[in-house]
Amino acid sequence: MPRNENWTEAQPIVALHDVHKSFGTFEVLKGIDIEVMKGEVVCIIGPSGSGKSTLIRTINGLTPVSKGSVKVEGIEVHDAKLDKLALRRKVGIVFQQYNLFPHRTVLENVMMAPLLVLKENRSEVEARARTLLEKVKLRDKEDAYPAELSGGQQQRVAIARSLCMRPDVMLFDEVTAALDPETVKEVLMTIKDLATDGMTCMLVTHEMGFAREISDRVYFTDAGRIVESGPPAQIFDAPQDPRTQEFLSKVL
Ligand code: ADP
Ligand code: MG
Fold it and tell me: Rg of the chain over CA atoms, in angstroms?
């Protein structure tokens, strides 16, 4: 992605303005406004089907918008002329399904995108991959194959793989939803460490305790709209909108 000389850290690193998205005649996003500053951690909560995944996917260009603007570091993501590859390098995304390459080792999985997509120098990528595996506490598993790891370990490899592209923003879409309960915590700890290190993070999560602990701000979505947003203490202890109150009464 071209550097935007006009963007400074005093401006949002991610900015969605009046984002609409329809699939056919079904409007999934009905005017979303979100601004995230560099280093902030933002959680998006809300009922299933409210548009959370669609919203997250507009930020790295995976889902085109029908109307509105999505900017990363001041650059319009949905500009047809934008280099999508460069955008996906800048904005990492991790999903519920980790989709590691089964016939590649952990280390090879982490190295693959920078080597094959960005054509970076192998020894530099390898050094970085090892540092990242250390960070996600899997340095001793670098020669293992994905099937030899637990779900939580595989998800940590997926996070390291995404980080190996050196993103400026990380998106997490329900990354613990498919994991055994005993491995959820280690993945949440990994994300917490990243956030503590200053990574800008946007998370869709059903882990309300974690959202409360980690977020600078929480957005509650329902039926394609942001119903309410604020600091976690406000959203969780004193939600204003009846839809937020009802959702939280079911999940807390
Ligand atoms: P959430 O992540 O909050 O559960 P999603 O963003 O996945 O919500 O989906 C919101 C709505 O959009 C759902 O009703 C879903 O069926 C619909 N939807 C999502 N992706 C598509 C698609 N590619 N085509 C048609 N409908 C879709
Ligand atoms: Mg979803």
Answer: 18
Q: Which residue's alpha carbon is nearest to atom 23 within ligand 1?
A: 23
Tell whether ipTM is more than 0.85.
yes
> What local confidence, expressed as pLDDT, does residue 235 receive?
97
Show me where the domains of the chain are located.
14-249
139 CA from centroid of ligand 2 (Å): 31
Contacts of 30 (CB under 8 A, 6+ apart): 20, 223, 224, 225
* Cβ burial, residue 181 (10 Å; 0-12/13-18/19+): exposed
Can you say whether the dihedral through the CA atoms of 41, 46, 52, 55 is positive or negative? Answer: negative
What distance in angstroms lies between residue 55's CA and the mean position of ligand 2's atoms? 9
Ligand 2 mean position to 231 CA, how many Å? 22
Q: Quickly state the pLDDT bin for 216 (edges 50, 70, 90).
A: very high
Kindly list the protein residues whose Cβ atom lies closer than 6 A to any atom of ligand 1.
23, 28, 48-54
| CATH number for the domain whose boundaries are 14-249 | 3.40.50.300
Which helix (H) or strand (E) element contains residue 213? helix 208-214
Tell me how far apart the alpha carbons of residues 197 and 192 are, in angstroms, rounded to a whole number.
Answer: 9
- Sheet of 41-45: strand order equals 91-94, 169-173, 200-204, 41-45, 217-222, 225-230
